[in-house]
Write a structure and sequence with these properties.
six-stranded mixed beta sheet; four-stranded mixed beta sheet; alpha+beta; single chain; Transcriptional regulator, AbiEi antitoxin, Type IV TA system
Length: 331
Amino acid sequence: MTITLDHRAINQSPLALLTASEARMLGIGLGVRQYARVRAGIYVARAAYEKLPGWQRYAVRVHAFVRKHPDAVLCLESAAVLLGLPYFNEPKDIHVYDADRSASRRFGNVAVHTGADPRAVGDVRGVLTTSPVDTAIDLMRVLPLAQGLAVADAAISPKQQGFTSVRGMRDLGLSQRNRRGRGRMNWVLDHADDRAESPAESVSRAVIGWCGFEHPELQREFHYEGEDDRVDFLFPSVGAIGEADGWGKYDFDDPRKAEQHLRNEKRREDRLRRHGHAFARWDLSDVWKITPLVTALRAAGVPLKHPRKTAKLASLKSRPREKPYRARETT
């Protein structure tokens, strides 16, 4: 089947890939100061590569792998790059699905997966991946809970990918013979919400609950001064508003659009404050650290209603599938 791309899908390498043979033809020297090897025989400009956020470095690595292995079927985080599903920071491994293997194997930083449960395979502009729903379920089984929740929300949200439903994922997941990560998958599906509009909102919602704060309403609309304003979170007992900022919403790749968005956002926040709403604002890096998010919510008067879930909060620091990070990032 052919898979329709989501706008978050990275369907080509963020940097130009240069093979060793192409470099020889062009008379380009592949000195280590100028070029970084991202796959055997494939290079990119080092300075540009090192400036990329982790999730884009991973996309470069995935596309370099596909350049070398065009018939491979990507799965898990590697498929997420092409499908537009959330993945976080820079995953360590390239993940490939091979139904014909008798056992999963690792070849350096390439993990080749198989299993008793078959995966549907689709084509994304000439690149083979496991299907969106199979990829989502596989990720929910292995990712930390907050990240898995971001994947589930993206899969069901019409403002994100919206290619399936909770019931559809649960039915498929429970029909699989593989029991690894089933409890994790069930928790994620129990808490998924199709109103979430970004991974930052999904992770924030999980951490807000684990910290013991009042459960917020999502995407509440207000009508003040002739304007319609929709907010990420409303904490109903105190009327406080929470906003999970993501750089993408401000179009920082286009400075003029970014400037206009920021001006509009300032007017919007001032308008909501004039009508009695305290405001808490944070970004995803604040959520991973926990304390800045807690400080912002307390300053806005958001009440604590439940005991703190220490074990689940500790899971935010468990990132075994990622390379060491500079800052928490997501697509």
